[in-house]
Design a protein that fits this description.
Length: about 280
C-alpha cells in the first residue's frame, strides 16, 4: 500500500494535497473494515496490509474530508493544532495479549484503563476516538487508518508488559525508518510514521517525564523501538506500556490507571502548542 508524498516539503510535513490523499486512503480502509464486519462472521483478523494502488493527489476529492474546512477557492485548508486523541486499547477479541498467572488478560485491563484515559483527555478539552469499544480485535491497519483519517490528531496505544519492574511505565516511539521516498516519490504504508518521528519523540518525552514523576523507577524519557502499530500511523504516535502482567493481584495494575491517564492527558495538553499542521507547503511548525 503506497502513499503519494511528492508534495511532502523538506521540513517533514505532508502538504495539504498529500494529506488529503492520506485521508482518502485511510477512509477507504475504514469503510472496507466496517463493511467486512457487517457482512462476515467473526474470525481472527489478519495483521498484514491489504494491497492498494498508489493514490494520485491530482484526483483526490476536494471536500468531504473529516476535520477539513473549505477555503473561498473551494479547496480544503488544514486545521492547525491538536484537538483529537486516537486511543487504542491493544489486542482484544481472539488476541488477549499478555496473560498473568491469575487469569489476568492484557486486552481486558487496557480496555478498562481506556475509560480513565478518555475521561482525563476530555477534561483537557480533547475529542477522543477509540479504535475499539469492546472485546473485538481490529487489524493493525484498521487501527492506524482510524488515526490517519483524522486531522490534528495524535495516536496513543495502551499495553501491559509481560516484563519490567512492576509499578513502572515506559513510553515507546517508533525507531528510525528507512528513507521516505523511492524514485517515484511514493512512500509505503508501513513507513507512514516517518514524517512524524520528531513530533512523536517530543510527545513521548512529555508523557514519559510525567509518568516518571508518578511511578518511581520509570525512565525519564521515551525509548525507541520497532513497534508495529506505530510505523503505519501518519500522526505523532506513542505506545504506553505498563509493567507488568505478572503481578499477583490485578488491583495493583488497576490502581495505576488514574496516574497513567493523567500523565497522558497532561502530556497531550503540553504537546498541543508544539503540533501545528502547516496550511501551506514549506511552512515550519
Amino acid at each position: 500500500m503506497l502513499l503519494d508524498v511528492r508534495n511532502l516539503p523538506r521540513n517533514g510535513f505532508l502538504s495539504p494535497l498529500g494529506m488529503i490523499s492520506l485521508l482518502v486512503l485511510s477512509a477507504a480502509i475504514l469503510l472496507r473494515a466496517q463493511t467486512s464486519t457487517q457482512s462476515q462472521p467473526a474470525v481472527p483478523t489478519a495483521q498484514t496490509p491489504a494491497t492498494a494502488p498508489a493514490i494520485s493527489t491530482a484526483s483526490s476529492p476536494q471536500s468531504g474530508i473529516p476535520g477539513s474546512t473549505t477555503s473561498p477557492f473551494g479547496t480544503p485548508s488544514q486545521r492547525s493544532g491538536l484537538s483529537i486523541v486516537v486511543l487504542d486499547p491493544a489486542h482484544g477479541g481472539t488476541d488477549p495479549g499478555a496473560r498473568g498467572t491469575g487469569g489476568i488478560r492484557e486486552s481486558e485491563i487496557v480496555l478498562d484503563m481506556a475509560v480513565q484515559v478518555r475521561r482525563a483527555l476530555e477534561l483537557q478539552g480533547f475529542q477522543v476516538v477509540q479504535t475499539r469499544q469492546g472485546n473485538d480485535n481490529p487489524s493493525f491497519d484498521d487501527r492506524s487508518a482510524r488515526a490517519n483519517a483524522q486531522r490534528g490528531a495524535v495516536f496513543v496505544t495502551l499495553h501491559i508488559s509481560s516484563t519490567g519492574l512492576p509499578g513502572t511505565v515506559r513510553v515507546y516511539v517508533s525507531s528510525e525508518l528507512p528513507p521516505l521516498t523511492d524514485s517515484k516519490g511514493l512512500i509505503p504504508w508501513d513507513r507512514a510514521q516517518a514524517p512524524f518521528l520528531s513530533l512523536s519523540r517530543k510527545f513521548g518525552d512529555l508523557v514519559q517525564g510525567l509518568l516518571a514523576q508518578r511511578f518511581k523507577g520509570s525512565p525519564p524519557t521515551a525509548q525507541a523501538a520497532t513497534v508495529r502499530q506505530l510505523r503505519t500511523t501518519a500522526a505523532p504516535a506513542i505506545a504506553v506500556e505498563i509493567s507488568s502482567i505478572v503481578v499477583d493481584d490485578r488491583a495493583q495494575l488497576d490502581h495505576m490507571g488514574q496516574g497513567v491517564a493523567d500523565a497522558i492527558a497532561e502530556g497531550a495538553a503540553a504537546f498541543r502548542p508544539m503540533y501545528v499542521v502547516p496550511s501551506v507547503p514549506g511552512v515550519a511548525p
